[in-house]
Design a protein that fits this description.
With 301 residues, the chain is an alpha/beta fold. The chain is globular, with a radius of gyration of 22 Å. Strands 3, 4, 5, 6, 9, 10 and 11 form a seven-stranded mixed beta sheet that branches. It has a two-stranded antiparallel sheet with strand order 1-2. A two-stranded parallel sheet has the order 7-8. Helix content is 46%, strand content 20%. It contains 13 helices and eleven strands. It folds into three domains: 80 residues, Winged helix-like DNA-binding domain superfamily/Winged helix DNA-binding domain (Arc Repressor Mutant, subunit A, Orthogonal Bundle); 95 residues, 3-Layer(aba) Sandwich (D-Maltodextrin-Binding Protein, domain 2), CATH 3.40.190; 105 residues, D-Maltodextrin-Binding Protein, domain 2, CATH 3.40.190.
Amino acid sequence: MELKWLEDFVALANSLSFSRAAEERNVTQSAFSRRIKQLEMWLGVTLISRASFPAELTREGRAFLPAAEDAIRNFYSTRTALQPPKVLQDQTITFSALHTLTVTFFPEWLTGIRSTLGSFRSRLSPDKGGIEENISTLIDGEADFLLTYAHPSVPFLLDRVRFPYLVLGTEKVIPVAAPGQQRYALDHAISERLPLPYLSYGDLSFFGVALSRLFARKPPFERNILHENTISIGLKAMALSGWGVAWLPESLIVDELASGALVPAASDPSWDLTVEIRIYRHGKSSRPLLNAFWQQCQKRI
């Protein structure tokens, strides 16, 4: 059970409109409805009657509403009580970042900023796996900055005025496989009309969505999903073990490509995916350290 499910339910109980509550919670209506359903499944009861318009709380929903509101209040009051001294909070920057970027990009980039900005403490919120879940860390105030990949084919439901961003660089994502696989395994699968042993990011992760859009524009081929992981490093390990073809960020596999431990799976570079590396912030943040950090980000572009 997640706190945001309770907050979603309270927002829905107040508006009795899935669309208005989803807008208030800064998520798509489909994602909002899915989270309400997850809460109902966890509780084992139906909270919302969807047969009427506007929606209505069921008897169980009306009974649960005060408990949900109390739980939210208790959670935030407890979090406030446990917070470190304000002087430490003022010196700490919290980041939410895709796991791959925390390995390939984040350390050196952050070190460069620290060399000009001066000393500060950093904290990293773990990758949530799904696009909307990662974005919610910024919307909900869990993170001061969101470091993520971006691509025109993957919608980011963030208002650019409320959540401005900078493009810090680009990354190429390429299909690779262990050398024991058929040379240019993707070419071979398409020409011979054979299923491609495929290592998938799933349907909801950033790369999963971006690749599905890429595949829709390319010649069709059958993918035999042998393993699924939203984290690139996990798919890299499976590719090295010979499980199949994975689309991996080039910066993550520089050494493996150089040594031949991984080889390109396609001869046509149009199967590559070029993505931006972006950093987002909450436009209403006014802490001096965050503003100074943002200025340093802008200078390094």
